[in-house]
């Protein structure tokens, strides 16, 4: 792949770190519009759906086992488990929420925000007995911080981090989690700055981990280390400042050729939470546009032999989901070619599909080596353009202009609830799952936090 030549925006202000710290410190003075509270509750519904749905996955079982072995005392609830201290609960819950790669994504490229940020807000809030409004404020604050640190779209921060081998969820998730924790601890600007900077110096997570237990661990570790950073700041820890500036900080370390266009940090310019996207398919977001295009051709290719498939995809697709011969259900989630082949064979690509029968389906495997990706430099992630040539000579075409789950093409209420029930009902049962959904949708009401934790406990 050729290097990106876009330069950094010349209008970027100095004092980015100060601006972020001020935003966190002022959280207690903000009144949130009703649409933002509603958006936060939707993110919470999706978060719990994904966490409960992933609670039996290997990475979730491993982190939960470690938490149980460490026996750290505390009042923070582990989903489908007991109680422990906030950091350990956030580790387990954040990992769970990202296990199936079914969780929400920020359209601007900042990564999976709810998994680390909701995990931190709920763990700290639950441990401290915080009010529902305080926990919501903590999540919104953490979301906005993490989104601003990773946004910019095609040539922005998050997308370029991925091309350099770094996972935005692992890198900026820890800062978002620290922001949520600092909000609940009522930090002033100085302590907020120390918490955020301590979090930033522990940022990590490699794209090379995708398709393994390490990817969901990025979200859980970010949640845990964000809480740790805030706890350190509460005890007087003084961190190095300047890590969030355009030069000589995180950005120069992670994107060393300065290829990215860095958007200004301006918290008064709308809410990034309204740019949250939700997944109808249980796999890497880079596969979704191509899956949608393939689904449009499913009936036309049924029973016919495919000679060749080409899909014009977002430039980052080969970086994040370019596996050509996946060997496990988890690896398949990070293979655009495999997901195209499976979608052409009629799989819906929901969580239940990603199991051994689909992985080794002979029909899917026959198509897989015939799929070629054509990355397009300026094509957004939500578009795909597909050509399918059949052995009988027919040439089929399909396109996706805006995949489902994008803020401008949102999942319907019925689709959203259906996803929730499909993930939660097998674990909690129908009545309990419906009760949890109703409780989460009224999370701004008193008593909802305690009821939620009671419903999701073991």
UniProtKB/TrEMBL annotation:
Domain MmgE/PrpD C-terminal: 281-435
GO MF annotation, one: lyase activity
Domain MmgE/PrpD N-terminal: 19-258
One Pfam family hit: MmgE_PrpD_C
Family the UniProt entry places it in: Belongs to the PrpD family.
PANTHER family found in the cross-reference section: 2-METHYLCITRATE DEHYDRATASE, 2-METHYLCITRATE DEHYDRATASE-RELATED
Name by which UniProt lists this protein: MmgE/PrpD family protein
The organism's taxonomic lineage, starting at the top: Bacteria, Pseudomonadati, Pseudomonadota, Alphaproteobacteria, Hyphomicrobiales
């Amino acid at each position: 792949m050729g290097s990106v030549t876009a330069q950094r925006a010349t209008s970027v202000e100095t004092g980015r770190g100060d601006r972020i710290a001020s935003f966190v410190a002022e959280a207690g003075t903000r009144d949130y519009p009703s649409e933002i509270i509603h958006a936060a509750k939707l993110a919470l519904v999706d978060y719990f759906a994904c966490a409960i749905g992933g609670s039996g996955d290997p990475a979730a079982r491993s982190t939960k086992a470690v938490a149980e072995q460490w026996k750290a005392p505390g009042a923070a609830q582990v989903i489908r488990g007991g109680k422990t201290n906030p950091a350990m609960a956030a580790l387990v819950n954040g990992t769970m929420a990202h296990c199936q790669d079914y969780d929400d994504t920020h359209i601007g490229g900042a990564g999976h925000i709810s998994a680390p940020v909701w995990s931190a807000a709920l763990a700290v809030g639950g441990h401290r007995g915080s009010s529902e409004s305080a926990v919501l404020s903590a999540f919104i604050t953490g979301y906005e911080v993490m989104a601003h640190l990773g946004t910019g779209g095609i040539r922005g921060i998050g997308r370029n981090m991925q091309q350099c081998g770094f996972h935005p969820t692992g890198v900026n998730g820890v800062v978002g989690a620290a922001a949520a924790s600092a909000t609940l601890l009522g930090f002033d600007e100085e302590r907020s700055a120390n918490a955020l900077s301590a979090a930033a110096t522990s940022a990590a997570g490699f794209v090379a981990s995708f398709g393994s237990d390490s990817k969901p661990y990025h979200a859980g570790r970010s949640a845990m280390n964000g809480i740790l950073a805030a706890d350190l700041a509460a005890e007087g820890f003084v961190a190095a400042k300047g890590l969030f500036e355009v030069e000589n900080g995180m950005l120069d370390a992670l994107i060393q050729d300065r290829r990215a266009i860095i958007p200004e940090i301006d918290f008064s310019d709308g809410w990034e939470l309204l740019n949250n996207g939700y997944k109808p398919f249980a796999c890497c977001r880079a596969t979704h546009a191509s899956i949608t295009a393939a689904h449009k051709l499913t009936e036309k290719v049924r029973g016919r032999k495919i000679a060749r498939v080409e899909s014009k995809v977002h430039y980052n697709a080969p970086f994040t989901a370019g596996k050509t011969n996946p060997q496990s259900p988890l690896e398949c989630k990070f293979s655009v070619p495999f997901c195209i082949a499976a979608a052409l064979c009629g799989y819906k690509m929901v969580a239940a599909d990603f199991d051994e029968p689909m992985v080794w389906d002979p029909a899917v495997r026959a198509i897989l080596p015939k799929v070629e990706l054509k990355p397009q430099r300026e094509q957004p992630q939500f578009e795909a353009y597909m050509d399918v040539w059949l052995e009988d000579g027919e040439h089929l075409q399909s396109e996706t202009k805006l995949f489902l789950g994008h803020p401008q093409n949102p999942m319907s209420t019925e689709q959203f609830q259906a996803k929730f029930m499909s993930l939660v009902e097998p674990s909690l049962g129908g009545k309990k799952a419906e009760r949890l959904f109703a409780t989460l949708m009224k999370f701004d009401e008193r008593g909802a936090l305690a009821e939620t934790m009671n419903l999701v406990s073991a």
